[in-house]
Structures are given as structure tokens and as C-alpha cells.
Amino acid sequence: MIVDSCIDPSSGRAASLDYLKRIGVDAAKQVVAVMATHWHDDHVRGLAQVLKACEGARFFCSSAFRSDEFLTLTQSYVLGAESTTSGVREFGEVLGLLRDRKASGNLQCGPSFVLENRLIESSNRCEIKALSPSSAAIEKAMSSIASLLPEQQRPHLRVAAPTPNEGSVALWLEGRSCAALLSADVERQASDDRGWGAILALAPGSRGRAGIVKVAHHGSESGHDQRVWDELLVQEPQAFLTPWRRGSRGLPTPNDRSRIVHLAPEAIQVGRIGAKPKRYDPTVERVLKEVTQTRRAAVGRLGHTRARCRDADQGMWRVQTIAESVPLADVA
Ligand SMILES: [Zn+2]
Fold first, then answer.
1. So where are the chain's domains?
2. How far is the CA of 103 from the centre of ligand 1 (A)?
């Protein structure tokens, strides 16, 4: 299964495809599922490329996309609207690919819309289950999607638009002797019928806690819920996170780093983001502001870390840092 996607800037290809090729996995035949946890640009770059290569895979995405508004949004990509983000464009391509597959007789290709407690894959060796979004979260996420539509196509909105993270799909992976939590960009919400509150109510750790966690939302405070660490994870689990930056805002912050290292001393930051964009004199800054939406320094590096656990390993994960991965405790 491939969860989310990113592009390797050195090859221009989806990093997951290059990796599978290196370890001798035939993506066309052996990948059974491709999952988009949500449609933020930093999670879906190259997703259409991935799905194209994984000819036998079924495509899964959040139920929040099952709305007319989302389909209209992807349609606006087809119509060439300039306002569409690259995440929307990527989804437009994915849906086009799935339409073609259906037309040529593959009725199992998806999209399969996921919500909490949905079993994604199950065999005698492992089980993959979606922990979110809850129905309350789906409703919220749909209104956030609607708010992105051009004015005349928008339905009347009753609530302030939340972020698209509301519809994020968190995954629970369980093997014979181990479990892992992939948190996507799930956040703590004001009400426990959404976000981490709703996930905790499912008690996914009841058969055994997870020894591995992909920390939610790039380690941000909004993605942190102490109950997740107390109820779903082993003590001092192996944690991973990817950094994020837009303009002068970056995640994780120094506070986030110390909170996570306190809970998971061996936590690893996978990948490196560029430094803050350079400031120029005010005239140049003004021109740059007029012609760009956001700026970032182009020195981010793709990271790669692998965690494996065999049945015989009794829950002990073997972690191997392959590229641009550093202990979070050492990040300055
Ligand atoms: Zn993200």
C-alpha cells in the first residue's frame, strides 16, 4: 500500500515508486492500495504518477471528497481555472485516470471513500484500518471545500470554513506482533466527535499499542493530543515526522520539538526544509509580494527513513535512516 505521495526533486518522479523499484517490488502488480489521506499539496504531489504505475491498486481517499463541491473543484482544474491549487490539479488527474480504468472494465479501481473504522486491507498477517474522518468531521471538511469554490457556485455556508485537515485519514496498521499509527494531518478539535477525540473513542489500541507513530501535522501543537500518547502508543515509541514551511512559518517549532523528544527520545525528522526566504530591500520585497503568493528557499531535501517489523521481531521495529533523516533532538 502507498500512503500519500511526494516528488523527488532530483528525478522528478514520485519517491515511493523509485523506492519500490530499488527493493524489487513490481508496483503494477504488487501494490494493492493507494491512499490519499487529504488533499494538501505537500501530501499528494505525484499521486497521479503513483496511481498510473500501480495498475492493480484500488484508490482510497477521505469521504470528505464525496461531495459535489469537491467534484466541481476538480472540474475547475479540467476547465483551466487559475485558482486551483496543485493538490486539486493532482486529484483532477487521479479522477480522470480512474474514469479511464472504469471505462476499460476495471470496476474495482475506486475511488473508495473512507471514513472511521473502515477496513482497508486484511490478510492473515496484517490489517489496515482507517481511524478517521468521523461523520462530524466529514461535514466540516465539506464546508471547507465548498468555501474554495468560485463565488457563484458556492452553497450557503453556515459555519466558518475549517482547514482541509478536518477530513484527514489516520491509519492503524496491525501485524501479528506489532502496530503502527499513521496520523496524517489529524488535529485536536474543540469537540470530541471530530479529530483525535473521535479516534480515541474507537480505542484502536485495545489489542496492543503502536510502537511506531508518524506524528500528526508535522509535529504542530494543534496536532498534539496527550491522550494519543497515553492510550494508543507504547511508552517512548519510535516517532517520525516531516518538517513543513510556508513563508516564515515552519513546523515543528522549537516548542513542538522539545515536547515530542520528551515523549519519544528517539524521534526522527525525515527530510529537510529550506531556510526562511531571504529579505530584500523594501522596493524588491514589494514587487515580490505582487507577483508571488508564497516564497520559500529552494534548498529543501527529501528524506527517507524505513521502519520494518517481522512477525518474529516481537514488536521490535528495526529503523534505518536512508537519506536526510536526523534525530529530532539534534535539530537546531
Ligand atoms: Zn501536511
1. 1-167, 209-332
2. 33
- From first to last of its 332 residues, the chain has per-residue pLDDT tens of 999 999 998 888 999 999 999 999 999 999 999 999 987 888 889 999 999 999 999 999 998 887 766 766 666 655 555 555 677 788 889 989 999 999 999 988 989 999 999 999 999 889 999 999 999 998 887 776 666 665 555 544 433 334 558 889 999 999 989 999 999 999 999 899 999 999 999 999 888 999 999 999 999 999 999 999 999 999 999 999 999 887 778 899 999 999 999 999 999 999 987 655 566 677 777 776 776 655 555 556 789 999 999 888 888 899 999 999 999 999 98
Ligand 1: centre distance to CA 22 (Å): 26
Which pTM does this prediction carry? Answer: 0.86
Beta bridge partners of 61: 36, 113
- What DSSP string describes 36-53? E----HHHHTTHHHHHHH
Centre of ligand 1 to C-alpha 317, Å, is: 24
The count of other CB atoms within 10 Å of the CB of residue 294 is 10
- C-alpha pair distances (Å), 65 with each of 8, 69, 129, 218: 27, 8, 19, 23
d(CA 236, ligand 1 centre) in Å = 23
Report CA(47)–ligand 1 centroid distance (Å).
15
